[in-house]
């Protein structure tokens, strides 16, 4: 296997790991079932995907990742297909489209992009679910009890994980062509 | 018009919107109306859940260890309280065995093969919980091959926690009783006490207090705080006698028209890693 394919396998493996961690973190630490007012949703897969999107230049590859992992996420966690499947590739194309504006990747830029994409994704899911009457939560309740805590938790985790994640995603994407 | 359709981006946007709503509508319909999702989705979910078991096993071990640690704090007071009840329990158990035996014999006499209280169980361990605020699903590692069907009730150690909402080949999803999905959170229930036949429907979950709300109660006379609430077995796949919780209080609704009974759920919906799926021996009409 040449280096390029090996890097792709590595990327897929790490996105999968983050995918499982989402469900397990919710189950093990954020499992507030008896008093379910505040809902914190771990979004580690999104974190991984945003970091990779900032570094991968091949748009076709990005859309493939978005659709495949979106489908798996929807089918396994949500039971209805069409939330992540659509929003994730859209988001990745969006980031890819505007990332030329950023001179160099650093914590501030990436944090704000993660913040924006998380807001976009959660609001999109809320709007779609509300339209299809899967929930009757009001907009204010959504912002106070779901979006706010989710953003807060994930931003803190992003801060803590930034350096390892940064090194990891650099290593997963960058390679020298002569180095077979 | 010519110009409109020559715009590539607009067409992409249009197709995207159609695909989104098409996919969502079809899958929501399948989930609500069919007993199983399409085979492709089943296989996909199964593969993901089997691999996920590798990660879930250590997580559950850690979870068990931490909950044991927190249990240690309450041990002394709990022990005192439990000692007082042990004598009573032994007596009840002896009585229960005699009564069960008698019940079995009487049923044989009547040639009654199954009644509303008969059920068998399947144990399953939890693989993950959906990181979603409105789909409060647990994924468990048993499916069609273990005889699980959609809508079967699910218990944790102490009480009812929810209902099966999607069945794949070797995994399935449990929707928790604390959901606000109106199709799925209703359980026919009755209050156990001297007063006969107080029935209603557990139909809502009050997320601010963590109480279940039982509505359509036929009479609220003689309901006391602390009485047990069990499933009544009326209407379908839920057998009679699954423990839901204890009566906490009675409140009038916003219009002052009907009374709702508030129930403290028996199952602590936090510290468990294994659930029990209940298979009723008597099936409701299809």
From TrEMBL, chain A:
<keyword id="KW-1003">Cell membrane</keyword>
<keyword id="KW-1133">Transmembrane helix</keyword>
<feature type="transmembrane region" description="Helical">
    <location>
        <begin position="107"/>
        <end position="128"/>
    </location>
</feature>
<dbReference type="Pfam" id="PF04093">
    <property type="entry name" value="MreD"/>
</dbReference>
<feature type="transmembrane region" description="Helical">
    <location>
        <begin position="36"/>
        <end position="54"/>
    </location>
</feature>
<keyword id="KW-0133">Cell shape</keyword>
<feature type="transmembrane region" description="Helical">
    <location>
        <begin position="12"/>
        <end position="30"/>
    </location>
</feature>
<dbReference type="GO" id="GO:0005886">
    <property type="term" value="C:plasma membrane"/>
</dbReference>
<feature type="transmembrane region" description="Helical">
    <location>
        <begin position="75"/>
        <end position="95"/>
    </location>
</feature>
<keyword id="KW-0472">Membrane</keyword>
<comment type="similarity">
    <text>Belongs to the MreD family.</text>
</comment>
<protein>
    <submittedName>
        <fullName>Rod shape-determining protein MreD</fullName>
    </submittedName>
</protein>
<dbReference type="GO" id="GO:0008360">
    <property type="term" value="P:regulation of cell shape"/>
</dbReference>
<feature type="transmembrane region" description="Helical">
    <location>
        <begin position="140"/>
        <end position="163"/>
    </location>
</feature>
<dbReference type="InterPro" id="IPR007227">
    <property type="entry name" value="Cell_shape_determining_MreD"/>
</dbReference>
<keyword id="KW-0812">Transmembrane</keyword>
TrEMBL record, chain B:
<keyword id="KW-0133">Cell shape</keyword>
<dbReference type="InterPro" id="IPR042177">
    <property type="entry name" value="Cell/Rod_1"/>
</dbReference>
<dbReference type="InterPro" id="IPR007221">
    <property type="entry name" value="MreC"/>
</dbReference>
<dbReference type="GO" id="GO:0008360">
    <property type="term" value="P:regulation of cell shape"/>
</dbReference>
<dbReference type="GO" id="GO:0005886">
    <property type="term" value="C:plasma membrane"/>
</dbReference>
<dbReference type="InterPro" id="IPR042175">
    <property type="entry name" value="Cell/Rod_MreC_2"/>
</dbReference>
<feature type="domain" description="Rod shape-determining protein MreC beta-barrel core">
    <location>
        <begin position="126"/>
        <end position="279"/>
    </location>
</feature>
<dbReference type="InterPro" id="IPR055342">
    <property type="entry name" value="MreC_beta-barrel_core"/>
</dbReference>
<dbReference type="Pfam" id="PF04085">
    <property type="entry name" value="MreC"/>
</dbReference>
<protein>
    <recommendedName>
        <fullName>Cell shape-determining protein MreC</fullName>
    </recommendedName>
</protein>
<comment type="function">
    <text>Involved in formation and maintenance of cell shape.</text>
</comment>
<comment type="similarity">
    <text>Belongs to the MreC family.</text>
</comment>
């Amino acid at each position: 296997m040449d280096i390029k394919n090996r890097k792709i396998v590595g990327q897929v493996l790490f996105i999968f790991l983050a995918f499982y961690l989402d469900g397990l973190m919710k189950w093990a630490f954020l499992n507030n079932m008896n008093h379910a007012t505040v809902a914190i949703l771990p979004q580690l897969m999104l974190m991984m995907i945003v970091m990779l999107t900032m570094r991968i230049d091949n748009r076709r590859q990005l859309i493939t990742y978005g659709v495949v992992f979106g489908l798996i996420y929807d089918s396994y966690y949500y039971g209805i297909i069409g939330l992540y499947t659509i929003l994730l590739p859209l988001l990745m194309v969006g980031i890819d489209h505007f990332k030329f504006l950023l001179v160099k990747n650093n914590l501030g830029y990436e944090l704000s992009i993660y913040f924006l994409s998380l807001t976009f994704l959660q609001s999109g899911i809320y709007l779609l679910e509300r339209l299809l009457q899967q929930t009757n939560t009001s907009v204010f309740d959504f912002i106070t009890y779901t979006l706010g805590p989710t953003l807060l938790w994930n931003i803190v985790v992003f801060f803590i994980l930034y350096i390892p994640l940064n090194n990891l995603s650099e290593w997963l994407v960058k390679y020298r062509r002569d180095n077979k | 018009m010519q110009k409109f359709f020559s715009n590539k981006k607009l067409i992409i946007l249009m197709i995207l919107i159609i695909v989104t709503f098409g996919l969502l509508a079809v899958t929501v319909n399948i989930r609500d109306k069919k007993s199983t999702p399409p085979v492709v989705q089943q296989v996909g979910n199964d593969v993901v859940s089997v691999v996920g078991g590798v990660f879930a096993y250590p997580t559950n071990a850690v979870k068990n260890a931490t909950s044991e640690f927190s249990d240690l704090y309450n041990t002394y007071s709990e022990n005192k309280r439990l000692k007082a009840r042990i004598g009573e329990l032994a007596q009840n158990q002896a009585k229960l065995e005699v009564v069960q035996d008698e019940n079995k014999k009487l049923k044989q006499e009547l040639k009654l093969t199954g009644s509303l209280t008969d059920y068998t169980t399947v144990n399953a361990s939890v693989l993950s919980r959906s990181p979603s605020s409105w789909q409060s699903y647990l994924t468990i590692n048993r499916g069609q091959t273990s005889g699980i069907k959609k809508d079967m009730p699910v218990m944790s150690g102490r009480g009812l926690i929810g209902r099966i909402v999607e069945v794949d080949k070797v995994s399935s999803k449990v929707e928790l009783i604390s959901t606000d999905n109106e199709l799925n959170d209703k359980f026919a229930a009755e209050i156990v006490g001297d007063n006969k036949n107080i029935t209603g429907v557990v139909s809502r979950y009050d997320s601010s207090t963590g109480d279940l709300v039982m509505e359509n109660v036929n009479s609220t006379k003689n309901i006391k705080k602390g009485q047990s609430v069990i499933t009544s077995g009326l209407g379908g796949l839920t057998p009679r006698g699954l423990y839901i919780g204890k009566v906490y209080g009675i409140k009038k609704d916003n219009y002052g028209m009907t009374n709702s009974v508030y129930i403290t759920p028996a199952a602590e919906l936090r510290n468990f890693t294994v659930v029990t799926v209940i298979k009723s021996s008597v099936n409701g009409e299809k």
